[in-house]
Structures are given as C-alpha cells and as structure tokens.
Amino acid sequence: MSTLITGIAELRTQDDDLATLRGAALVVDGDRVAWVGSAARAPAADSRVDVGGRAVLPGWVDSHTHLLFAGDRTAEFAARMAGEPYTAGGIATTVAATRAATDDELRANLRRHVAEALAQGTTCLETKTGYGLTVDDEVRLARLAAEQVDEVTYLGAHLVPPGADAGAYAALAAGDMLAAVAPHVRWADVFCETGAFDESRSRAVLTAAAARGLGLRVHGNQLGRGPGVRLAVELGAASVDHCTHLAPADVDALAGSTTVATLLPACDLSTRQPLPDARALLDAGAAVALATNCNPGSSYTSSMAFCVATAVLQMRMTVDEAITAATRTPARSLNRQDVGHLAAGARADIHVLDAPSATHLAYRPGVPLTHSVWRRGTRVIPP
Ligand code: NIG
C-alpha cells in the first residue's frame, strides 16, 4: 500500500545535502519512504494525502532520555527554583520509587511518556536504565524499555546507591550487573561527574561494556569541567551528553573526533546551569545533537521542539543547524541510518508542522506546531 503526500510547502529531507525542497512530494510504501522529488513528477500511488501547504520534516530523534522511572520530584524542582543547587544525589529519590513500582506501573508510565513524545513529533527514542541500581532492577528496566523504545542504554553507573561502597559498586556495574543487562541493550553509559563516577571508575565500566560489544555513551561535563568529554573521545564513544562546562581542549577534542556532542538545553535551564556553547562546538567542526534528557529530576520535558527553539533563540544555532541536531545527528549518534532523514529507503517517520516552514519552530516558540505524525509509514497522530 503506497501513499503520495502532496501539498508540502517545504520539505526538509535531512538527506546528505540537507536541502530544503519546495514543490516537493513524497511517496510512502509500507514502512519506508519510497520516493522523494518534485510534485510535478510524482509517481502514481494507491492513495494520496494533501498536507495543505505545511512544512514536512523527519520525526525527531530523541537520543537521550531516562523514561523508566516512578515517582515525582516536584518538591526538588521547586527548591531548585528557590535557589537550591542540583546535585546527583536526587537520583536516589527516583531509584527508591522505581524499585517499589510494579512492572505494569513502570510500563504504563513509559507508555504515557512515549505517547507524549510521539504527539510532539518524536518518532525514535533512546532511553536508559539507571534508576534500578541492583542487578535485578537494572535487568528489569532494560527489559521493560526494550518493549517500547528504539534504543536502550545500560546506565548502572548512574549513581553509587546510598550506603554502598563506591569501589565495590563500580566493580559490580562493570562486572556482574553489566553481564546481566548486556543481552538486553545496545549501549552503555556512565555518569562521569563529581558525586557520581570518577574517571577511573567510569573508564572501567566503559571499557568492560565495549569488550561486550556495546556502543558507548557518556554523561560528561554536566555540573563542571571534568574528564567526561576527554574520556568519551579517547574511548571512541558515539556520544558525550550534556557538555555544559567545556574547556577549550574539550572543544578541540570533540572537533577532531567522531563523538557527537549531545546538548541538553532543557536540563541546563531546569538545573539553572549555563547553556552549552553550541557555537564554539559547531564552529570548531564538532557534530552537535540536541535531546530532551526527559527525566523526573533534572529535565522533565519530552519536547524536542522546545530544545530546538532554545537552541536557536538562546544558543545561537541556526534553524538549519538545530533541525539537523534534532534529526540526522542524533540518529548518527545512535548508529542508525534508517531514521532522522527522509531519503528513499528511510523509515517513513514523518513530522508535518502546522506551519509553512520549519523556521516557525523558533519563530513561534511554545506554540504546539505538530499537525500530524507518521511512524513506520502509518499515520499515528492524529490517530
Ligand atoms: O542526565 N546526569 C545524570 N542523570 C540525569 C539526571 C537524572 C536525575 O536527576 O534523576 C541527567 O541529568
């Protein structure tokens, strides 16, 4: 069953040349994009949808979230807005609530957040374990995540659980816990930060994960300058996330590497950190992605559009750069060729904006601009 999509005011395929096409049309066949080109030369299809002069782009790829959780941290957020600092220790609150939740409660919570993201145009999601922190709980979270999201990341090294010995816990995270979780995930991540895991413990977990064939991601340089970015680049991580506090040497290291710098502006705003220097990274030649970091502690939003608008309005990224950073580059950071662009052969994940151009994402910040969403060739929004 094929569908011809016409009436596209602006088509951003995010293909190799990052072109913005006008007068274009697109054919979806099954779960794939079958054809992209001038509407005047469009091939016949079984059905036709006219999107009425709206902009079309790939679905967002949100490459950093923590959606397997229970509980609420509104009080912690309110205290922060009243001047308290964000610390890694708040993670323990969510760990306790998550351990106490049933599988079905966690499933329902995840389903709600995935649906919320989809309704805003996010068609590919990564999520992490990290609120379990026992072997059984981390395996449970990985299994539950794999039921509903595209990419799952092991984050046993998120926090040393209260009362645990840091060295012994890091050895567990690099040993038996990793061994138990690895069959259920493609990625491993470490929170390399003061108050979480230091450089040598982070390195131990990451090298053990790489030895098991997992791709690497790192939470680095979130709360201050530190070794996270350098370590990620040295180990060939696919992504280092946060990058809020970068030394010039970190920018140079990222620019000379294949590691994507994934910026999480909603988190920086919600934790009253400065916004990352996206301009320095881009001007140096580093690959930059944007993600929500949706989690109940430091960044409780699923809105990629908010991140894109913030990147343009506050981080001096162009609209083109921000859209690429929310589609094609996070796909690359997840080693996915099938999502984040709309060339023939790509997964038919299509985001139609209720606007004639994608510039409206920054021009009309805060306005819900998702008109319709297709995922794997099926229109899912509106259902
Ligand atoms: O990316 N930095 C570590 N992990 C999350 C925070 C999770 C939490 O506070 O619950 C983050 O910000």
Automatic annotation (TrEMBL):
Catalyzes the hydrolytic cleavage of the carbon-nitrogen bond in imidazolone-5-propanoate to yield N-formimidoyl-L-glutamate. It is the third step in the universal histidine degradation pathway. Belongs to the metallo-dependent hydrolases superfamily. HutI family. Gene3D superfamilies: Metal-dependent hydrolases, Urease, subunit C, domain 1. Pathway: Amino-acid degradation; L-histidine degradation into L-glutamate; N-formimidoyl-L-glutamate from L-histidine: step 3/3. It is found in: Cytoplasm. It is an enzyme of class 3 (hydrolase). It comes from Actinokineospora spheciospongiae. It comes from the Bacteria. Its EC number is 3.5.2.7. One of its GO terms (molecular function) is imidazolonepropionase activity. Keywords: Cytoplasm, Histidine metabolism, Hydrolase, Iron, Metal-binding, Zinc. InterPro entries: Amidohydro-rel, HutI, Metal-dep_hydrolase_composite, Metal_Hydrolase. Residues 56-362 form the Amidohydrolase-related domain. Binds 1 zinc or iron ion per subunit. This is Imidazolonepropionase. Its cofactor is Zn(2+); Fe(3+). N-formimidoyl-L-glutamate binds at Y131, N295, G297. One of its GO terms (biological process) is L-histidine catabolic process to glutamate and formate. It holds the Pfam family Amidohydro_1. Coiled coil: none annotated. It catalyses: 4-imidazolone-5-propanoate + H2O = N-formimidoyl-L-glutamate. Zn(2+) binds at H64, H66, H219, N293. HAMAP family: HutI. Its main location: cytoplasm. 4-imidazolone-5-propanoate binds at R73, Y131, H158, Q222, S298. GO terms for cellular component: cytoplasm. Fe(3+) binds at H64, H66, H219, N293.
